[in-house]
Amino acid sequence: MVRPITMPKLGQSEEVGTLVRWRKKVGDPVAKGDILFEIETDKALLEVESFFEGTLLKTVVQEGSTVPINTTVGFVGDPGEAIPEVAAPSPEFRKPNPVATSTEVPSPAALSPSRGTAEARLERPAAHIGAVREPPLHPTPSVMAAPEVFRISPRAAKLARESAINPTSIVGTGPFGRIVERDVRKYLESKGYDRLRITPAAKRLAAKENIDVLTLDGQNGQGRITVAVVERAIAEKPQPMSRMRQTIASRLTESFTTTPHFFVTVAVDMTELVNFRSELKAQGAPYTVTDFIQKAVALSLVEFPVVNSTTDGKNVRWHSRVHLGLAVNLEQGLVVPVIRDAEELSLAELHDAATELIAKARAGRLTPDEMGGSTFTISNMGMLDIENFTAIINPGESAILAVSSTLKQPVVKDDQIVVRDIMKMTLSSDHRIIDGATAARFANAIKQKLEEISLWKRLA
Amino acid sequence: METFGVVVIGAGPGGYPAAIRAAQLGASVALVEREYLGGTCLNYGCIPSKALIHTSDLYAQMRSSASLGLKTESASFDYSAMAERKDQVVHNLRGGVKQLLAANGVKVFEGTASFESRKRIVVNSSSGNAAIGAEKTIIATGATSSMPGFLPRHGRVVESRAFLDLRSAPSRALVLGGGVIGCEFACMLAQLGVQVTIVEILEDIVAFLDADVRRELRRQMEKTLGIRILTGMSLENITADEHAVRGAAGGEALEADLLLAALGRKPVTQELQLENAGLRANQHGFIEVDEYGVTQVSTIYAIGDVTGGPQLAHAATSQGLVAAENACTRQRRKNEKLIPYCIFTSPEVGAVGLTEQEALKQGREIKTGKFNFGALGKAQAIGHASGFVKWIADAQTEQLLGAQVIGFQATDLIAEATAAIRAELTATELAQTIHCHPTLSEAWMEAADVLLGEPIHTIAKRARG
Asked: Which H or E element spans position B7?
């Protein structure tokens, strides 16, 4: 029996998915649980497994296409079976129709990461640096500027292509401003094309790669545009960033340009905690310094609820729970898995939750739901040998803590210069809701906890 | 102490042109040479070997010219006269170099150069020591034949230089090493009727050649010249006495009148005392240079065989000119990367750029076009119908990336391909270039047509790339 495979729904906020790569070819046998294709959302790259057994009969959606969820992307069945006609969706799909995202039909394809916690959480403010798709508080109607019509005759287009030039800036003299061959010739003449010293192979390569040879500088090829010059231009051609990277870019720009950031830095004396942790480690306890920081932050957020809130400049939303985001650096970008209800977790539970989420992040197996809803984020660059740094607030939050490396420093203690393990932390705050004094008190609350060894003896 | 703008050490095919170019650019130039002007190439390499090979080649052609309508049954050769002519050629050319240097005002020092410091060089000769000052120095000391210790020191065991001094030909020869030098001399001897056996430790002779060319060369050497070629074997238990030289390869006992050792060449740096100039040769004895020919010391350049690049006279010449220009002007020119090579075997071989195997190894998508000389009118007319030319081009842009030719006058024919590749021509450009008819060079045009899938003088293989 022929069964359609559809674009699965990945998370609460996902309406579209990009099919990055088919892992099976048409005609390949498919077993239950085999990976059929890879999809990319704003948040992650995921593998999609087959629920069915059979043969991949047809692929409807091409690699690189973005389609609404539940769109049929292909069919699995027995060889020779008739395949229903499906119109291929437009690959340039951008604006999903909300009506199309009905979730009544169960998706025949399953995500390989477990979706055990996939039930909708009503209260889940967005909180992923590269991820959030929260409706804007003041939606503005977007007006698409109508693209200018570009008219060019086939002969003119062919001449432009063979000359390896970009014809878009040529003024057309044909009907309706259409560019005709004569215009291209005139343009080439006005640009001194005849005097261009370009090797035949370089010209062919430029034409193939859509490099405008008039933009090339042949000086490195001793005045001649050689293949090496064109290859450099190809390497420098702007490439679209991954969707994940684009989302990171827009979210961070939005945060940094619309949120008035200010920063306070405290130096924490970690000497005793480092020693205590070594003792615990010798006894077999798994805690890392990060675990202590997470616990200290969760405890402090309960004391300072304003730091655990969100504002749009007019309203403030207080969060009753601490959902702690952990910024994790991956090769393809930054992800922020979230520890839910962190204020309720013991040190051991915090350790386990963080370990699991970070491992999943590194393996690329975080689900979108595991990356949303944080109320405060910690960015720890301690392992990167950093004296101090500042972080950009995750949209939907009002502060972020930047944790730097613990370094041996000479400090004055009891009027003596001594060597201590010092770690700097910088809190970035949204000044619309957090004042300087509050930020200072909050940062010092964390510092005091980390320096108070009796607290950890009780908690560990 | 006399001080020069440029001191060139070594008057080989790299050194003497460097000296002339530096003088042309206005520098005061000294050229130090411990033996003969012209170096290995002119005195005991390219030139004398080609003089001998020309004679052997003519002789072989005469003996097989009955089909051309010639009666040459009584043809014979006099090896000592061949050697004498070769010496005369060398003598004349050496005189020419001397005149050129004098005309350009280059001062020639006879003796062995060694560094006393970066800017002070001592020339040691039988008539005493002379110190000269050097603003810039170009090291062009070249290389010399390797004679590993396992070879007996005996008159029957020679390397290429001693071989060229022979006044008579052996009747049986063992050639140890199937590289360029070994194969050239093996072909020359075989053309004179000498029984030749080549022993090569690698899996094939001239291993760097394109596989198609290598196959054709080996086939012709074995079939036409009757050379025995033993590959993947080493020559063991080598002994020599007044009767013969003997060895064993693959368990078989081999015996000959002469053993020619052609086991590669090692750089000449020993007497230079590089350490006094702050220089050091690498672990293989070569002096490393950057792409402008500069050593670790910014005022000292090195060119040619001593730098460990391809050991070719024409590469050294090009590098010598680049070094001289870089030393004497404000411009900085890089060494040319595209170096053609030619092998004076029978048949001759010429090649430039990538071989098919190298291109595929680089992961390039390529097209090839091969054209046999047999399909050319000229080749048939002159009775040299064997061999072929072959282009390798980028599959997308048709840029010519490599060229191979094996057959009559291949070493001259490669010049056109070299110019085409350096100018980054495409196969279409080459195919549209008019070539004189009837000539062997038409093969390049025809092969480009083959590559493009539209040949005139051969049947198109539709299945090809």
From this structure: strand B2-9
What pTM was computed for the model?
0.74
Q: Looking at the complex, report in whole angstroms how far the Cα of residue A122 sits from the nearest Cα belonging to chain B.
A: 54
pLDDT band at A38 (very low <50, low <70, confident <90, very high): confident
Top-confidence residue, B173 or A101: B173
Structure tokens at B410: 């291949």
Q: Which residues of B touch A200 (CB under 8 A)?
A: 399, 423-426, 428-429
Is B444 in contact with B435 (CB distance < 8 Å)? yes
For residues A376 and A297, is the Cβ–Cβ distance under 8 A?
yes
**Do B302 and B361 have their domain in common?**
no
pLDDT for res B464: 45
Largest CA distance in chain B: 73
Check whether residue B9 and residue B128 sit in a common domain.
yes
Q: Answer whether B426 sits within 8 Å of A227, measured CB to CB.
A: no
My answer on whether B256 and B352 are in the same domain is no
pLDDT (0 to 100) of residue B349 = 98
- The confidence score (pLDDT) of residue A13 equals 63
Residue indicated by tokens 């080989």: B12
Total domain count, chain B = 3
Domain membership flag for residue B339:
no
Shared domain for B127 and B192, answered yes or no, is: no
Alpha carbon distance A327, A428 (integer Å): 14
CATH number at residue B417: 3.30.390.30
Cα–Cα distances (Å) from B158 to A358, B257, B258, in that order, read 70, 11, 8
Share of chain A above pLDDT 90, in %: 52
| pLDDT score at A125 | 36
* The predicted structure's pLDDT at residue A59: 86
Q: Among the three residues B263, B288, B320, which one is the final residue of a domain in this structure?
A: B263
Residue type, B270: Q
DSSP A336-401: --EETTGGG--HHHHHHHHHHHHHHHHHT---GGGGS--SEEEEE-GGG--S----PPPTT-SEEE
Q: Which of A161, A162, A203, A205 should we substitute to test contact with B (largest number of B Cβ atoms within 10 Å)?
A: A205
Q: Among B229, B263, B297, which residue terminates a domain?
A: B263
Tens of pLDDT, residues A192-226: 888 888 999 999 999 999 899 988 876 554 578 99
- DSSP-assigned states of every residue in A82-95: -----PPPPTT--S
With contact defined as beta carbons under 8 Å apart, do B376 and B405 qualify?
A: no
pLDDT score for A33: 82
Q: In this complex, is the C-beta atom of A204 within 8 Å of any C-beta atom belonging to chain B?
A: yes
Give the count of alpha carbons within 13 A of B113, CB side only.
30
Based on the fold, state whether residues B10 and B111 are members of the same structural domain: yes
Q: Which stretches in chain B have pLDDT values below 70?
A: 460-465
Q: Assess B424–A contact: CB distance below 8 Å, yes or no.
A: yes
pLDDT of residue B22: 97
The answer to whether A201 faces chain B, any CB pair under 8 Å, is yes
Q: Given a cut of 50, is residue A109 above it in pLDDT?
A: no
- Domain boundaries for CATH 3.30.559.10 within chain A: 243-459
Domain with CATH 2.40.50.100 in chain A: 3-111
The verdict on B359 and B388 lying in the same domain is yes
> Residue B229 is part of which domain span?
157-263
**Chain A positions in Cβ-Cβ contact with residue B395 (cut-off 8 Å):** none
Is the CB of A231 inside 8 Å of chain B's CB atoms?
no
Question: Which residue of chain B comes nearest to A205, CA vs CA?
Answer: B397
Determine contact: A228 vs chain B, CB below 8 A.
no
The CATH number given to A3-111 is 2.40.50.100
A vs B, Cβ pairs < 8 A, gives: 31
Q: How confident is the model at residue A71 (pLDDT cuts 50, 70, 90)?
A: confident
Reported as a pLDDT band with limits 50, 70 and 90, residue A95 is very low
- Does the domain spanning A243-459 belong to CATH 3.30.559.10? yes
